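In the previous lecture we treated proteins in isolation. Real proteins rarely work alone, and many bind small molecules. This record shows how such a complex is specified: first the sequence, then the SMILES for nicotinamide-adenine-dinucleotide.
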Amino acid sequence: MKKPIHEYKKVAVIGCGFIGYSWGVAFARKGLETWMYNRPSKTLDTVEDRMRGALQFLSKEGVISDEEIDDALGNVHITDDLSAAVNGADYIQECLWEDLALKQDIFKTLTDMTDENVPIGSSCSGLRITDIAGKVANHPERCIVAHPTNPPHLIPFMEISGDNASQEVKDSVFDFFEQVVGQKPIQCKEVYGYVLNRLQLSLVQEALYLVQEDICNVEAVERALTEGLGLRWAFTGPFGVEELNSPNLFEGLDKYKDYMIEFFTKEQKKVYDYDKDFIKKCVDGFAPLMDGKSHEEYLLWRDQMVTRTRRLKED
Ligand SMILES: NC(=O)c1ccc[n+]([C@@H]2O[C@H](COP(=O)([O-])OP(=O)(O)OC[C@H]3O[C@@H](n4cnc5c(N)ncnc54)[C@H](O)[C@@H]3O)[C@@H](O)[C@H]2O)c1
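The predicted 3D structure, ligand included, written as tokens:
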């Protein structure tokens, strides 16, 4: 039976790195009892500060009030005791390193420790959940991919997948993320890279090719995306773009077919390899675009722009 969303009250986040801490912020600010587990480490020692910093950022940007910072942090429990984290949890989000053996091990442990009706989502970016959890003894059908876009407390798109998982579990977790956490999930079949990374990798591949062949420089690629495609893509995807580039989508796709086949079969080539000199060429070409900002300043600027664009979309 599909688990109703009002049954999601306590969540456990397993691994408090980049993705784990950010999931923790997304859960805690929505009033969920949020247990953050990591083995003893600097990551564990600093996770509260990082979560507070992210909440302060949201408050500064006007997304939440100052009081909501304390409310959210009041929902957070930080621990290196796995059983305390998962005991009574209604949902578990695994965020350990992308390592098959490590994930297999933690899924075996988590499924042994928890009730069969507790869904367990993996943040994994490329591994197949059937390889990770297909052989766990205790109800593998509740193990799914719940792949975020980094950082999930700012970017809502996520992918739910798992060919061995039950449709009830996938639907229930989908509703939980959409209606309780405020994400924008999709469901897809279990293919390498799911949807977002497949789209992104096609584009990165072409970007590398254009620079490798000296067709244009790094700045030109960045400009094409940030001043061209990206401005449309925050609002209309490829189908929406084609609807507007033609009298309508039908005619657009019909016309596009000949050009696209010509391009893909004859013109577009793949980058199969590159060396350190090429990486250096990309780094040198990109450096001026950071406009003197450090990595951290560039990250903060990106987060501000993403948050403001989201507000514009929501308005
Ligand atoms: N970083 C991204 O952009 C991104 C985006 C989407 C999905 N993901 C996926 O999210 C997952 C986590 O990635 P990340 O970038 O947060 O990694 P990370 O290295 O920042 O964090 C991993 C955490 O796992 C902890 N850990 C490792 N082994 C452990 C163990 N045995 N017991 C307890 N804790 C352990 C580490 O201490 C660390 O805190 C990966 O599967 C990754 O592919 C990452």
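Summary for your notes: The first strand starts at residue 10 and ends at 14. The two ends are 37 Å apart (CA to CA).
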